[in-house]
Amino acid sequence: MASCIALVAKENYPLYIKTVISPSQSVLSEQNLKYWYLIHTCLDVIDEKLRKVDNKDLYLGLLYLIEDYRIYGYVTNTKIKIFIVIESSNQQFHDTEIKIMFKKLHAGYISTINNPFCDIGKTIVSKKFEELVKTMLQKVTNPIMNSSQTAILTSNNSQQSLTSTNSGQGTGEYTI
Amino acid sequence: MSKQTGKYGVPDPRKISYELFTLTYGSFVAQIIQDYEDIDEVNKQLDIIGHNMGVRMIEDFLARNPQIGRCSDLRETAEVLSKQAFKMFLGIQPQVTNWNSTFDEFSLIIDPNPLTEFVEFPDDGKYDNLCYSQIICGAIRGALEMVQLDVECNLNTEQHKGDSTTTEIRIKYKGIIQDAVPIGED
């Protein structure tokens, strides 16, 4: 199950990408082109969302569903966009979980920027950031908790769905 | 910088935040590297800057702690350095370890080092010899020089070198500085 995490700069040029299938490729390699294409289509969605509502919410939610991929977006106050692309099968993610992941990525990006030897505006080269992204990708591709949760729910024939309309649900609680 | 509030709990406007200090030092070092380009020269400059700071800091330190008297040996100096001086200026308390057999040398282990909080060196090996916290060594040397103590102060290990994640400063006692007649006077 493929997935990817990418960062796009304010001027909409690519800053960073990490995918599961080709984890050690350069930012603009061929394998990553597919993902950049998907993200490029989402940039328009982001522009729309940012223009329409005045809200200060950084998390933009599920942006786009395209050919089996779900793309979640997050934009910082400095217009740095973070994308999480997940190839969806039957695994669905809680909105809150994705939000937590975005917050962690944002914090990781800030720590990377604070490095005096980091060139802002260039491709992100930082071991700490790579490790953070790797753990995020692992969580996204092998969420053992989530798959067991969906199994329990579907077997219990619950009417509840694990989409973003759920609010205030911890990962361990289910009201049926 | 150990307390953010001055008298009566009012925030002291001269104190700054920890992150601002770290970021300032970081961009300062990055700029020096850009100016000098040679890493050894950069280390030397950081040492000189630290030295200039140290000779001034010692006055401030002794003024605020009038109860500190003369140290009878290097061990007392190490104690005062770690427990009071570092606490006052950097808000941390390094460990004093690794005494050698004649008690002439010791190490200060700074963990965590506030100067290197966000720093990550790029992999291209250009910065392998950079002593990022050299300014602390220079400051220690300058301060102790003003109290007639001649020491040699070097960085042993730092976060980016090897696997260790702490900063170790090696301080070696060289002698007592005798009062010399200043140049130009007879």
TrEMBL record, chain A:
Its main location: cytoplasm. It is found in: Cytoplasm, Perinuclear region. It holds the Pfam family Sedlin_N. InterPro entries: Longin-like_dom_sf, Sedlin, TRAPPC2L. One of its GO terms (cellular component) is perinuclear region of cytoplasm. Residues 156-176 are annotated as: Disordered. Residues 156-168 have a biased composition (Low complexity). It comes from Brachionus calyciflorus. SUPFAM superfamilies: SNARE-like. This is Trafficking protein particle complex subunit 2-like protein. GO terms for biological process: endoplasmic reticulum to Golgi vesicle-mediated transport. Gene3D superfamilies: 3.30.450.70. Belongs to the TRAPP small subunits family. Sedlin subfamily. Keywords: ER-Golgi transport, Transport.
UniProtKB/TrEMBL annotation, chain B:
One of its GO terms (cellular component) is endoplasmic reticulum. Its main location: endoplasmic reticulum. The keyword Endoplasmic reticulum applies. One of its GO terms (biological process) is macroautophagy. SUPFAM superfamilies: Ligand-binding domain in the NO signalling and Golgi transport. Keywords: Endoplasmic reticulum, ER-Golgi transport, Golgi apparatus, Transport. It comes from the Eukaryota. InterPro entries: Bet3 (IPR016721), NO_sig/Golgi_transp_ligand-bd (IPR024096), TRAPP_component (IPR007194). It is found in: Endoplasmic reticulum; Golgi apparatus, cis-Golgi network. The keyword Transport applies. Homodimer. Belongs to the TRAPP small subunits family. BET3 subfamily. May play a role in vesicular transport from endoplasmic reticulum to Golgi. PANTHER family: TRAFFICKING PROTEIN PARTICLE COMPLEX SUBUNIT 3. This is Trafficking protein particle complex subunit. The lineage of its organism: Eukaryota, Metazoa, Spiralia, Gnathifera, Rotifera.
